[in-house]
Design a protein that fits this description.
360 residues; Spore Coat Polysaccharide Biosynthesis Protein SpsA, Chain A; UDP N-Acetylglucosamine Acyltransferase, domain 1; 2 domains; 7-stranded mixed β-sheet; 6-stranded parallel β-sheet; 7 helices; 18% helix; transferase; NTP_transferase_dom; GMPPB_C; transferase activity
Length: 360
């Protein structure tokens, strides 16, 4: 049996206002909390026991997932009393693991949507004899990431912070946020204080001569840390570009949950999701967007690449392009909001009052 730790304690600051009332892993993507996709993919790879390292809005997780039996999993929950960083969170849940010292433990960041071959990563770890193995992916522009160069055998040779000059870009390989640790390595992480695996644990292991192995898997990979990325990830799940056994319906141009009401002449395209109890009015055009539970879209509204929070109301003929509308917000008719604008939860915008782009 392989067991796993899921790091789901982050505040999701970059995703606000979506994360004001909801922890980031519980924001719906393709009709279900994003965490559901990660749990389902882990189970499909043979994982049976997962410990969730929670912190922000920790009380939300267990009432939804329970003991995990509906997903064929055994789930446990450990809550940090104060933020401990990635390494500290891993160490904080170590007592709930059942693995022996040389057994592999999978570790996932709770905001990465990926097509990673989980079984291949575990196999790479076992056959290479590594103490830690990392999923690496290649990106066109690695300047926003930490670089992880490897030798010809895949062994990690360095961890390089975000490069500032072209000369510093020695590889296009980056840390993709999924790891396999030998259980004994987890027990060496300092307890009771914040620790970053990226800045402290991994460089420290390398300096001590430990074997860290990288496995490059450049299938689908997306960091869902921004609203624009989250909307794209949800659409890619619906369209079938990102793999998940947890999408609640057939993949295609749109996903309409059973309790949603969509007018006959409304058009939903580009992986759009109409969540539970949503109402989509006549003539509405929605492309590549997510409409969360209980939201109402007025007649003739035009929405593109946007995320509409739970219970929000969008007035007739209003245009949204790249917008994020918080839970319970009310946008009156005949408004125009573009360019990544964010409207806070429960805000109210009167009819015909706004034509705004955040890049103006």
């Amino acid at each position: 049996m392989t067991e796993a730790i899921l790091l789901v304690g982050g505040k999701g600051t970059r995703l606000r206002p979506l994360t004001v009332h909801t922890p980031k892993p519980m924001v719906p993507a393709a009709g279900v909390p994003f965490l559901t996709h990660q749990l389902a993919r882990a189970r499909a790879a043979g994982v049976e026991h997962i410990v969730l390292a929670t912190s922000y809005l920790a009380e939300v997780f267990e009432p939804y997932f329970g003991d995990g039996s509906e997903l064929g999993l055994h789930l446990e929950y450990v809550t940090e009393q104060e933020p401990l960083g990635t390494g500290g969170a891993i160490r904080n849940v170590a007592s709930r693991l059942h693995s022996g010292p040389d057994d592999p433990v999978l570790i996932f960041n709770g905001d990465i949507l990926t097509g990673l071959d989980i079984a291949a990563l575990v196999d790479t770890h076992r056959t290479s004899g590594a103490e830690v193995s990392l999923h690496l992916t290649r990106v066109e522009d690695p300047r926003a990431f930490g670089l992880v160069p490897t030798d010809d055998t895949g062994r990690v040779t360095a961890f390089l912070e975000k490069p500032q000059t072209p000369e510093e870009i020695v590889t296009d390989q980056i840390n993709a946020g999924a790891y396999v640790f030998n259980r004994s390595v987890i027990d060496t992480i300092p307890a009771g204080r914040p620790v970053s695996v990226e800045r402290e644990t991994f460089p420290g292991l390398l300096a001590d001569g430990a074997h860290l192995q990288g496995m490059v898997d450049s299938t689908y990979w997306l960091d869902l840390g921004t609203p624009q990325a989250f909307v794209r990830g949800s659409a890619d799940l619906v369209l079938g570009r990102a793999p998940s056994p947890a999408v609640p319906g057939r993949r295609g141009d749109r996903l309409v949950l059973e309790t949603a009401e969509v007018a006959g002449d409304a058009k939903l395209t580009g992986g759009t999701v109409a969540g539970p109890r949503t109402v989509i009015g006549p003539g509405a055009r929605i492309d590549g967007s997510a409409v969360l539970e209980g939201a109402v879209i007025g007649e003739g509204a035009q929405i593109r690449d946007s995320l509409i929070g739970a219970g929000a109301h969008i007035g007739a003929r209003t245009v949204l392009d790249g917008a994020v509308i918080g839970d319970g917000a009310r946008i009156g008719a005949d408004n125009e909001l573009r360019g990544g604008i964010r409207i806070w939860c429960d805000a109210e915008i009167p009819a015909s009052s706004v034509r705004f782009s955040s890049d103006q």
